[in-house]
Fold this protein.
Amino acid sequence: MRSTTPHPAVVFAILFALIFLLHAPLLRLPYFWDEAGYYIPAARDLLLRGSLIPQTTVSNAHPPLVMAWLALWWKLVGYAPAVTRSAMLVIAAFSLTGVFRLAQRVANTEVAIAATLCTAVYPVFFAQSSLAHVDLAAAGFTFWALSAYLDDRPLATAICFSLGVLAKETAILAPVALATYEAGRALLGKQSGRAALQDGVKASNRNGSLAPVSKSRWQLAALLAPILPLALWYLYHYLHTGYVFGNPEFFRYNVAATLNPLRILIALGLRVWQAFGYLHLWILTLAMFLAMLLPPLKDFGFPRDRIAIPVQMIFNVVIAAYVAAMAVIGGAVLARYMLPVVPLVIILAISTLRRRLRHWPTVAGVIAAAFLVGWFWNPPYGFAPEDNLAYSDYVVLHEQAERFLEARYPMAHALTAWPASDELTRPWLGYVTRPVKVFRIEDFSFEQVLSAADYRDHFDVALVFSTKYEPPPTLIARWRTWQDLKRRFFGYHLDLPPAVIARMLGGRVVLSQERHGQWVAVIEMERSEILNARQYGVMPQ
């Protein structure tokens, strides 16, 4: 059967064609949130200045591999959002091919096809596929590295994990966790995880799903090898900036401010939810646990194969490492940080369904359909717009409002918050044709708007927008203790509605738009003589 399985290049081509067609309506969208705030400026600095350290934005110490990839595409094809998003789709297809190859190695081709398709349509993976972030690339290299690790190929393991950490530093979690796992078993005098795979080889080989493996003394070195390129990158970053882990504010927000036991406990629960329940993942997890109550099906008198227990342990070690580490670090508890482990959960679940349910393809199809619904349906709990197509609602709203502002108030000074402040001042992000002068505040909470009212002479218009998605009110959302915890640990705030902001600033709403729970508005200050003078470049005496 191994000779009849598709070549990885064929799998990649099919997957790229599929996701490219699905993303075609999104390719020309301007850049969104962290794209505009960090990754695109960093890649553009590399293209124009040849600098691995961003110059037009504050460095976060993220390794430069993905930014170099984007700069290469811009150099060869041209700078445009469609080029950027196509380049990221190549990475997404590469990552999905890694999922397919890994699932095929540990299970079989049937499981690989179903798990890969479910991963491709999982809302977070789908939304991130064309966004210029680094997490999907790190996840893709992790999948390929795990496949090489299970095949006992130390050099390929070291290379793939090293490329992963050069895409994003947190990719070091998987190899370090596996190295710790292997070392722990050795200290306890137990058979190593790699050697223990021999126990499941015979059953797996019957379906050609896992080639025989051998214990390799080089595997531990391969797992530790990615530490070197990451250390060299941090040394380079320190020599050029004076900081190892990014600027002090970045380090404070993502590490120093997160080391609170209560916050870690809450974040741990959120990370478990993101790994097993977020955006309809709970349907897959529930189906897996219910299936485990049934006996295995038999083919030709033999129980259907399962993923070898040592392999399951390896998957679980990586999943646990990400859940635990991401509960400790990371100021924003974003779901994309869990992309390296969610496909592992999907592979384990799909394999369980196939082993125990005769009509498992139907169940897998229902799960995939639920993931598809998650592209468009915003859940009844808080989530980041970048986790489904809500990000496109944000981009369209801001594109329309900022073009309106630019056309109607060409010389105005605009009050706004990040990331709209970057969208207005950097035309190369795709929102405006020329820079607009801005007066920036942090957000549109009562405190920030009240402080801005004291400086109303500094701006003529205000571009206000929802800085986060607010779900419909629920019992837990109204729970004051939960709201206080979110404010204390996760920077939660309530944005005032446009009409209230207009009253506080002494202006009137001239444009207001809303899409699926997100909104944007333009407010004109009631000082028409100053505004008109600025539009024509003449200030009144």
About this structure: Strands lie at 298-299, 302-303, 413-417, 437-441, 461-465, 507-515, 518-525. Residues 2-387 form one domain. Residues 200-215 have pLDDT under 50 and may be disordered.
